[in-house]
């Protein structure tokens, strides 16, 4: 039969985002969203309750203003707003110099970690659930149990390795050392292993026997990295000179002690840096004192030796007077040199004050020169004694000056306080800063909801199955009916025993009404057909092809037609189970092989007007048997005996049997599974049948589920159906005259059941709406082989 190809102007893939469609898809997947949200909230709650608390210690430092800075106008001060001083001090606080000293002072490199319960059990314990004390959980430390480490020394090869401590009775404990050996000790007792270079002392041990703690001596670099990761330094305000320090840690007291160690180490280095100049000067002066002292001794020894040699005991009054005058003039000249340097910075040499100073210096130099001439007139002995005495006194003055300067520098170094002041010492709030349970739970809910939404959207994006009859129509195939999903039939997956026929067990089900709609569509479409045989196939298994064949045959027989249902799947056919036919019964395979006649294989079922032909024994060459002339003869003979012949064939994309069967029968119809069969598979079936000389006449959308339909296609199928039996049927349409339908048979036109008699009277709810009861055009097929 030929087929009119409907033209569809609908566009299935729209690039624009429809908010209504998007919301409808999310509503259809609300169960997934709720599931993901619930799982995420549960995981977040377990994490929040099972994570150990984290405390934070805070401290505050003040950076005092630097002295000697140039005062700038207000306008220029605003331009120089980026003072790098605070940034510099923050970097110093994070340096190894400061943190390394803090690690040594607070013993941050000593790490004690309790063996904690799994997170789920910890969360249960938080909410008051009892944790059993058994051998499996005895090693896990409970809340409130702790130990305090007072001493730890390990050899270099044990740095970073675990030492297992197991609590024993009466304050005793056992150590499992990294070399595999074990040691026993008790609290407040130092365990020393001199040969190994190991020492340990536990000061406090508050734990039940059997609990385990892991002790580890970290390397200095690891301890500094750990401390730097927990330390945060920031300036409060802009150019305030106030630094806020915060340190997080699992131990309330230990965190506070560590932050105090950091501030003290920073303060000491700041003081040391401020006193660096005085320290350097003091070191230089102290290095010169021994040389000055040696000069005094040398000058004194030379003077005494000369006196003893010349028997000169004293300079005499005249020599002493000259020596005193010369020393005084030299001191005055030295003072004038300093004053000249000061005046040279302010005036030129022509200035009166500068000229006066030069005149005074010339007068003193002239007088000094006269005194030196007087010294030259003294006797040689007195002159030599005078020179030696003058050298001794000069060396003595230098020595005393160095001693005085050294004392001044020591006082300066001791009185240096630096430019940093501790405003607030470290304190720790007893309320933990982490985990923030409310925030974690809220974030878990949000992430869970987004994960569920993403899963639903991705699932819809990846879903390529046919969603509506419009999609099939757009591919050029008429849709004869839409068969709704029946949950009972979908769940009936037993592999042995008799299968129920829905049209007989639940005739008022909406799915059965879909088969009646299919029967009506095919009834009118085949009025002009040359053969009243139908081939049902599908693209792939599990499309519901056998289910459709059986129920279509039953409802057609219930309408008064004579129907023959043929199981043409000679590979895996199982229609016999619907009619409780033995597997060994002769069937189609036996007939095609010549081992049986038509009378031998036709079975009269319990349904009036319905006959059945099973597969019989599965042949090894089904395709070759179907290509024999006996199969065409069978189709022709069935046409003469029955009003409708329905052939249930294998999937078209799996084997070539449907092409052979389709060439012999009057029409080939594809059963398309809702949300499973893809458009590409339908096109492949069309192409394969056309290449084999057959033609796909139409399609049946099977397994339609309004609950799973994607938004945008649900408008025509999302109404709720409810059929009830009624003693007095109520018609929703105007009364129409009864019309008799004539079907072709071997003996000519025979009056059959009217349309009103073809189906039982039904009552529909006011909001009920039949989704697909329209018949599609079906004309004679001229492409038979």
Automatic annotation (TrEMBL):
Its record classes its membrane topology as: Multi-pass membrane protein
- Domain (Tyrosine-protein kinase G-rich): residue spans on this chain: 380-461
Q: Which residues form the CobQ/CobB/MinD/ParA nucleotide binding domain?
A: 534-709
Question: Any idea which GO molecular function terms this record carries?
Answer: non-membrane spanning protein tyrosine kinase activity
EC number annotated for this UniProt entry: 2.7.10.2
Q: Name one Pfam family in it.
A: WZC_N
Residues of the signal peptide:
none
Q: Where in the cell is it found?
A: Cell membrane
Its recorded name reads Polysaccharide biosynthesis tyrosine autokinase
Record-annotated membrane-spanning stretches: 31-50, 440-458
- Which positions fall inside the Polysaccharide chain length determinant N-terminal domain? 15-105
């Amino acid at each position: 039969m030929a087929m009119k190809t409907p033209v569809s102007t609908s566009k299935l893939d729209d690039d624009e985002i429809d908010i209504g469609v998007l919301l409808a898809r999310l509503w259809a997947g609300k169960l997934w969203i709720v599931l993901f949200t619930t799982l995420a909230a549960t995981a977040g709650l377990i994490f929040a309750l099972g994570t150990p608390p984290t405390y934070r210690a805070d401290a505050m430092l003040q950076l005092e203003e630097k002295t000697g800075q140039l005062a700038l106008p207000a306008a220029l001060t605003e331009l120089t707003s980026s003072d790098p001083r605070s940034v510099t001090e923050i970097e110093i606080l994070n340096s190894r110099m400061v943190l390394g000293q803090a690690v040594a002072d607070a013993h941050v490199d000593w790490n004690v970690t309790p063996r904690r319960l799994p997170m789920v059990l910890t969360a249960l314990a938080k909410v008051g659930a009892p944790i059993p004390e058994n051998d499996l959980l005895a090693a896990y430390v409970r809340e409130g149990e702790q130990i305090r480490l007072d001493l730890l020394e390990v050899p270099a090869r044990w740095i970073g390795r675990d030492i297992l401590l197991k609590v024993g009775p009466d304050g005793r404990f056992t150590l499992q050392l990294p070399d595999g050996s074990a040691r026993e000790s008790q609290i407040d007792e130092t365990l020393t292993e001199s040969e190994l270079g190991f020492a340990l002392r536990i000061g406090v041990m508050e734990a039940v026997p059997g609990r385990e703690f892991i002790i580890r001596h970290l390397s200095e670099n690891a301890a500094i990295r750990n401390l730097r990761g927990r330390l945060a330094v920031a300036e409060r305000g802009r150019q305030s000179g106030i630094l806020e320090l915060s340190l997080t840690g699992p131990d309330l007291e230990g965190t506070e002690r560590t932050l105090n160690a950091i501030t003290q180490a920073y303060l000491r280095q700041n003081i040391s840096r401020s006193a660096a100049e005085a320290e350097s000067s003091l070191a230089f002066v102290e290095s010169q004192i021994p040389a000055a002292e040696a000069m005094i001794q040398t000058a004194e020894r030379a003077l005494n030796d000369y006196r003893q040699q010349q028997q000169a005991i004293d300079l005499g009054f005249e020599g002493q007077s000259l020596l005193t005058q010369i020393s005084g003039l030299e001191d005055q000249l030295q003072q004038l040199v300093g004053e000249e340097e000061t005046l040279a910075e302010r005036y030129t040499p022509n200035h009166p004050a500068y000229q006066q100073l030069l005149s005074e210096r010339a007068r003193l130099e002239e007088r000094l020169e006269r005194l030196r001439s007087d010294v030259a007139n003294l006797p040689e002995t007195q002159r030599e004694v005078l020179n030696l005495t003058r050298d001794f006194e000069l060396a003595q003055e230098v020595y005393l000056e160095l001693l005085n300067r050294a004392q001044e520098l020591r006082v300066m170094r001791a009185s240096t306080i630096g430019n940093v002041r501790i405003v607030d010492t470290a304190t720790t709030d007893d309320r933990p800063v982490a985990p923030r349970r409310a925030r974690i739970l809220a974030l878990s809910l949000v992430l869970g909801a987004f994960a569920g939404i993403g899963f639903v959207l991705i699932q819809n994006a990846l879903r390529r199955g046919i969603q509506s009859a419009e999609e099939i129509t757009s591919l050029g195939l008429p849709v004869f009916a839409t068969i709704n999903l029946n949950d009972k039939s979908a769940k009936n997956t037993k592999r042995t025993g008799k299968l129920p026929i829905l049209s007989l067990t639940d005739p008022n089900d909406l799915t059965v009404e879909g088969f009646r709609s299919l029967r009506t569509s095919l009834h009118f479409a085949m009025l002009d057909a040359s053969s009243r045989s139908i081939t049902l196939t599908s693209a792939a298994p599990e499309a519901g092809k056998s289910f459709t064949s059986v129920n279509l045959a039953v409802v057609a027989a219930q309408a008064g037609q004579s129907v023959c249902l043929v199981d043409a799947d000679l590979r895996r056919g199982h229609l016999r189970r619907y009619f409780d036919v033995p597997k060994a019964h002769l069937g189609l395979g036996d007939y095609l092989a010549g081992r049986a006649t038509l009378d031998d294989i036709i079975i009269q079922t319990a349904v009036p007007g319905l006959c059945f032909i099973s597969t019989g024994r599965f042949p090894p060459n089904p395709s070759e048997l179907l290509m024999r002339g006996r199969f065409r003869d069978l189709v022709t003979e069935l046409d003469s005996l029955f009003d409708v012949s329905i052939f249930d064939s294998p999937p078209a994309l799996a084997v070539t049997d449907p092409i052979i069967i389709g060439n012999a029968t009057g029409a080939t119809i594809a059963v398309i599974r809702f949300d499973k069969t893809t458009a590409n598979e339908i096109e492949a079936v069309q192409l394969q049948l056309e290449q084999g000389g057959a033609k796909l006449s139409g399609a049946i959308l099977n397994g339609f589920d309004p609950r799973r339909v994607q938004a945008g296609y649900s408008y025509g199928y999302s109404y709720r159906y409810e059929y009830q039996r009624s003693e007095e049927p109520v018609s929703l349409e105007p009364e129409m005259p009864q019309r008799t339908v004539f079907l072709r048979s071997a003996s000519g036109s025979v009056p059959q059941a009217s349309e009103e008699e073809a189906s039982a009277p039904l009552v529909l709810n006011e909001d009920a709406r039949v989704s697909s009861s329209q018949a599609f055009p079906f004309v004679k097929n001229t492409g038979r082989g």
